[in-house]
Specification:
Blueprint (H helix, E strand, L loop, with lengths): L10 H25 L5 H30 L10 H32 L4 E2 L3 E2 L8 H36 L15
Antiparallel strand pairs: 1-2
Helix pairs in contact: 1-2, 2-3, 3-4
Length: about 180
C-alpha cells in the first residue's frame, strides 16, 4: 500500500501559522508603541501584555515545532534549487527567531528584575539573576532580534506573493485557510 503526501498543510499547521503570524505582528506593534511611553500604569500594563504575548508565542512555537516534526509537510513546489535553499534557510531562521525573540525578552525582564507572570497568574522562573548592566546589554538584543524577525517575515511574505501572482504555482494555497486556492 502506498501513501501519497497531502498537497496542503494540516488544519493544525495552518491554524498555528496564521495564529503565530497575528500574534507576532500584534506583539511587535505593541512593543513599538509601548517602548517610548513615559512611565505610567498604562505602560506597566502594556509591558505585562507584551510579556504575556511573548510567552504565548514561545509556547505556541514549541507546539508548532513539535507538530511540524511529527507531520510531514506537503512536497515542495517545483522551483529552482537556489529558491528551495533560500526557502529552507528562511524557514529555519523563522523558527529560530520564534524562540530567540521571546527568550531574549524574558532574559531581559529577568535581568532587569521584572518577573514574568503569565496572564498575571502563573509566575515563571527568572532566566537570569538580577543584573542591571546585563539587562541593558540584553535589551537591544531583544529589539534587534525582533527587527530581524520582521525582516525575515517580510521576505517570507514577498516570496509567497511572488509564487502566487508571478509564478502562479498555487504554493500559497497549501497554507491558506479553507479550501485550496489557485
Amino acid at each position: 500500500m502506498t501513501h501519497t503526501r497531502p498537497t496542503r498543510y494540516t488544519a493544525t499547521s495552518i491554524a498555528l501559522h496564521w495564529g503565530l503570524a497575528l500574534a507576532i505582528a500584534s506583539t511587535f506593534g505593541l512593543g513599538l508603541y509601548m517602548a517610548d511611553l513615559p512611565f505610567s500604569p498604562q505602560r506597566v500594563q502594556l509591558y505585562s501584555w507584551h510579556k504575556w504575548a511573548g510567552v504565548t508565542i514561545l509556547a505556541l512555537s514549541v507546539f508548532r515545532l513539535l507538530w511540524r516534526l511529527a507531520h510531514r509537510p506537503p512536497p515542495d513546489a517545483p522551483m529552482p534549487a537556489w529558491q528551495l535553499r533560500a526557502s529552507q534557510l528562511a524557514h529555519r531562521a523563522l523558527y529560530g527567531l520564534f524562540f530567540a525573540v521571546p527568550l531574549a525578552g524574558w532574559a531581559y525582564s529577568s535581568a532587569a528584575g521584572f518577573p514574568v507572570v503569565w496572564f498575571g497568574v502563573l509566575p515563571l522562573p527568572d532566566l537570569l539573576p538580577v543584573d542591571k548592566a546585563l539587562a541593558e546589554t540584553i535589551k537591544p538584543v531583544h529589539g534587534w532580534l525582533a527587527w530581524t524577525l520582521l525582516a525575515v517575515v517580510a521576505l517570507h511574505v514577498a516570496a509567497a506573493l511572488k509564487h502566487q501572482f508571478i509564478d502562479r504555482d498555487a504554493l500559497m494555497g497549501r497554507m491558506w485557510p479553507g479550501r485550496a486556492r489557485r
